């Protein structure tokens, strides 16, 4: 399934889950279920933003965006994180009001069943998004998937809180679970924003991936002397790699080009969607550090 179809599926699932949670809240009157339904409103908004970002990110490079549009997904993820934080603050306000004016929720078996159905649907779609997001290297899908995981956890907590209210008669369990839901959502929103800002700031690839890149350059650059000034960054599903490759002064242009082609082929086989820039230099430019060719 393509990223655009997955993003469209997220919108449909988010609307379905919102309707289910709103129905559960209407049947029970639980402030914790109201908080859960309010988060689902954010889910719909973030899913729509992810759909637009994924479609925009798949546009080919043009004169104004020669490196493509992949970073659009990071903007979507930042927006999702901000909306999640806003929803959490609204939930905390509602929970505080419920603490001051506690009232017993209705012990509606149908309402609880509807809430459970919404949670199961969210969990199934979260697993789908996370698997696809990792495979497609899509920040927007990964952010949406992580948000749904957080939603599943909080929904489970809400159901536990309702169970405690019904079994103990202690009314403040309901607003307590709403408040804990809000705190969990706050953490989720902050995590999404932090990771997305890292992408916008051109953070280097993780250390384990950088080590694999260095190893490939060292083993596939036979005929060269060294590689230095290796730099990496990520933009959506694309990984950008650039470095200077030092070759002997007697190496012909054709031979140097063949070395570069060999390195590029190996890196793309390892990374997938990679944009590689290699600057070839003569032996006198060697810095004697960086990647030593084996």
TrEMBL record:
InterPro entries: Cation_efflux, Cation_efflux_CTD, Cation_efflux_CTD_sf, Cation_efflux_TM, Cation_efflux_TMD_sf, CDF_Transporter. SUPFAM superfamilies: Cation efflux protein cytoplasmic domain-like, Cation efflux protein transmembrane domain-like. It comes from the Bacteria. The chain crosses the membrane at residues 34-54, 74-92, 107-127, 148-170. Keywords: Membrane, Transmembrane, Transmembrane helix, Transport. Residues 10-201 form the Cation efflux protein transmembrane domain. Pfam families: Cation_efflux, ZT_dimer. Residues 206-283 form the Cation efflux protein cytoplasmic domain. It is found in: Membrane. It is a multi-pass membrane protein. Belongs to the cation diffusion facilitator (CDF) transporter (TC 2.A.4) family. This is Cation transporter. It comes from Plastoroseomonas hellenica. The lineage of its organism: Bacteria, Pseudomonadati, Pseudomonadota, Alphaproteobacteria, Acetobacterales.
